[in-house]
């Protein structure tokens, strides 16, 4: 068969991994697929750096547009990231009828609707497996494996940096700040960690999967996002005493006419399979009406795991090219005219269980005041623990609630916070019980 | 688009699930794929039974050959099981150029090589996702997601019946016999449970995956198979004291020029993600050179999870039909001329760690005699525990070994068993530590 010609744009960490797989595993891939894959050009501003891969001479170029303008190139692999130049390059490549592979989740979360539409009109493929959870085949699973399933919910650990930090706080009982420093020292967190630790990266991935699972357009700004920077070793320790661990979960639920889509620190019971996802690993539990729970876990980032996902896309597209079967699978997993718009429930309207921690003076009557306010807002309490007295006379009061409405919880918190006996702003962590694999 | 016409052969539990998904979720599937799927005939000896699905009149027929002979039918879904009629029907359907979906693992493990060859010659697709681990997309993951990965190993829980029984022995501390009775009462085990509890079912699945992962033909009889019927609550309790649980694992390792392929009760450390796979769930951890570890878990059996996997195959084949792209993916995940034959290492040649339990008279010198024999065979011991004295004067001596060669272990066991002070045949359970997800 005629070789499929590839143009890689961007040769940083993941780009180098892709080149390495394509060059070092060329024979294996051809044995499996029967399709020779040939890198024609790799565009990167740095054409001199030694990347530890034996490139053919002349393959490294500095001008990405040379790839877009080359009529021989079948598939463009965009690996520069960012939302401006990447967007322009992808749009231009689509216009020229080239197929695209990208891992650019920020771009897809915000401009995916438009890009998918343009690609569908031109009949080209735009593949994005590596944009969500690295090597975990979640896009393939949603679009292909679960094609006959109504998706009820997805619950996942989508950010390895946060999971590493929470694992460190839990296991080494250190502060968020120290755990973040460790993550940075290990290369798991950026110098500016905001995108990861404040939950935006997980929310980008959730936006992509939510669109795909429910066949809908999503407005990214409607996703509720809360990061992990306020999680303390104290709350993690208390959670453990109740039999729970704390993870940054991305949660999406199909309520029929509306959906929930939110990212926040969440207490999940030990014994739930997600509680065993340690370190930088990612994982997702999908509940479909036919499969019940399907759970996937693996490396969500890193050179070779991400490169592996990109190779999976390159091969899928090459197989389509071989059979003249471009756009074999609708890009968003649904026929374009059937894509709907469903509202995302505001966070204030969700119903969930909560962990509350109040810090109050150790006076008789405090518990009764707090419980009274909670009762007024229809928040019923499953259990209360009053922990050892602090030296300054205030004590932590810890509660696990039954299911309650978030807007009521917020109102109750305002009232409780205004009590004179309450010394620090109350702490709230949402709980998820209902997705255990058993 | 022209509807794809389907013929289902066999309408038992899974067949009914397939019909249910095709009929009740027709609209959803068509929204996602753009392809109308139409069941033309369902062949079953019982055409009268109420299956709780609203079939179109005339759809249920009793003669399976009517489906094979119908030129309109594009895809035949074989769900009768067994190795004789199923084989004949599939061969005849291939001859007529029909594409096949099957979940018949016993047939594929034993006659797959021939069937795949015939299908490849005729250019038809033979899809078998549902044959291994129910709804877990393991075939798709190996053939598509991991296409650029050298597979190093696969370690999995492939039999839900065994996993349920071991979970019950562990959690309720009951005997194998009682746990099996419970499994039968719950419908998780057959009246004759041999195929499941003696490990043959797991071995069928391991054979299919091993062929696929390493691109090789496999001789089923070379797989070492040991079931769970000898596992006692006592050994499970002792394992737990060492920090291990016992699972029936299917293990396959790529040693370069040879492979390991074996099914046996295995001790794995608590904390390993496979240790949390409870009840009837299945799971697999795949180690690929680029992805490192990728872990998948879900229902390995049952009406709807298995039907979901079959639907995934039906849709894949329908998408190929729509684009005239049959045989888009080589059936065995490798171009036929590149399929190799690699020897399976005999069990006596494997190197692994072991748990040993000896029951011996509580005499001074016993431990020294046993340790002396082990030492003679180069088996070094990591830890020894001598458990509370039994009433009849004999005590259990429990040991965890370092890595040792199985043939030497067997020879040592023969010698130890012949010692006069040793009262019962020694117990051996293999240990796997080396596939933790961290």
Structural account:
The structure is a homodimer of 438-residue chains. With 438 residues, chain A is α/β, with parallel strands linked by helices. Chain A has 3 domains: 169 residues, 3-Layer(aba) Sandwich (Rossmann fold), CATH 3.40.50.720; 152 residues, Dihydrodipicolinate Reductase, domain 2 (2-Layer Sandwich); 85 residues, ACT domain (Alpha-Beta Plaits), CATH 3.30.70. Chain A contains 14 helices and 19 strands. In chain A, helix 1 crosses helix 12. Chain A is elongated and about 80 Å long. The mean pLDDT of chain A is 94. The interface between A and B is large, with 69 and 69 residues. Strand 13 of chain A pairs antiparallel with strand 13 of chain B.
Radius of gyration of chain A: 24 Å
Shape of chain A: elongated
Oligomeric state: homodimer
CATH class designation of the largest domain in chain A = Alpha Beta
**Helix fraction of chain A by DSSP (H/I, runs of at least 4):** 25-40%
Output mean pLDDT of chain A.
Answer: 94
Largest interface: A-B, 69 and 69 residues
- CATH fold title of the largest domain in chain A: Rossmann fold
Architecture of the largest domain in chain A, CATH level 2?
3-Layer(aba) Sandwich
Biggest sheet of chain A, in brief? Answer: 11 strands, mixed
User: By helix and strand content of chain A, what is the structural category?
Assistant: alpha/beta
- Tell me the β content of chain A: 25-35%
* The CATH homologous superfamily of the largest domain in chain A: NAD(P)-binding Rossmann-like Domain
**What's the N-to-C terminus distance of chain A?**
47 Å
Q: Are there runs of chain A of 5+ residues with pLDDT below 50, and where?
A: none
Figure out the total of helices of chain A: 14
């Amino acid at each position: 068969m005629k070789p499929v010609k590839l143009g890689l744009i961007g040769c940083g960490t993941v780009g180098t991994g892709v080149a390495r797989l394509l060059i070092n595993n060329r024979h294996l891939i051809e044995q499996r697929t029967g399709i020779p894959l040939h890198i024609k050009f790799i565009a990167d501003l740095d054409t001199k750096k030694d990347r530890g891969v034996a490139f053919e001479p002349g393959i490294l170029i500095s001008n990405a547009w040379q790839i877009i303008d080359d009529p021989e190139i079948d598939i463009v692999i965009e690996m520069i990231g960012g939302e401006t130049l990447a967007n322009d390059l992808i749009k231009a490549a689509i216009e020229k009828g080239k197929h695209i592979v990208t891992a650019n989740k920020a771009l897809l979360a915000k401009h995916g609707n438009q890009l998918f539409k343009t690609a569908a009109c031109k009949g080209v493929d735009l593949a994005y497996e590596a944009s969500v959870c690295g090597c975990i085949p979640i896009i393939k699973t949603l679009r292909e494996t679960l094609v006959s399933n109504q998706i009820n919910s997805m619950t996942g650990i989508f950010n390895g940096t946060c999971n590493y930090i929470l694992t460190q706080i839990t296991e080494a009982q250190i502060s968020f700040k120290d755990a973040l420093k460790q993550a940075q020292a290990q290369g798991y967190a950026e110098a500016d960690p905001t995108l990861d630790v404040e939950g935006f990266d997980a929310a980008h991935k959730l936006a992509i999967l939510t669109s795909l699972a429910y066949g809908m357009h999503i407005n990214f700004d409607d996703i509720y996002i809360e990061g992990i920077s306020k999680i303390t070793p104290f709350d993690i320790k208390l959670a453990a005493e109740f039999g729970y661990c704390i993870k940054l979960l991305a949660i999406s639920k199909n309520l029929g006419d509306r959906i929930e889509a939110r990212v926040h620190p969440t207490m999940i019971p030990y014994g739930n399979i997600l509680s065993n996802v340690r370190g930088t690993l990612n994982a997702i539990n999908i509940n479909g009406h036919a499969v019940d729970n399907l759970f996937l876990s693996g490396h969500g980032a890193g050179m070779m795991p991400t490169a592996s996902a990109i190779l999976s896309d390159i091969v899928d597209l090459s197989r389509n090219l071989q059979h003249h079967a471009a756009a074999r699978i609708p890009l968003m997993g649904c026929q374009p005219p059937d894509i709907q718009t469903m509202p995302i429930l505001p966070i204030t309207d969700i119903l969930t269980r909560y962990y509350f921690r109040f810090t109050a003076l150790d006076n008789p009557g405090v518990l009764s005041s707090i419980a009274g306010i909670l009762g007024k807002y229809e928040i019923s309490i499953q259990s209360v623990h009053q922990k050892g007295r602090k030296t300054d006379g205030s004590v932590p009061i810890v509660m696990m609630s039954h299911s309650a409405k978030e807007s009521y919880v917020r109102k109750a918190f305002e009232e409780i916070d205004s009590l004179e006996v309450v010394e620090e702003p109350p702490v709230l962590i949402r709980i998820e019980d209902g997705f255990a694999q058993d």
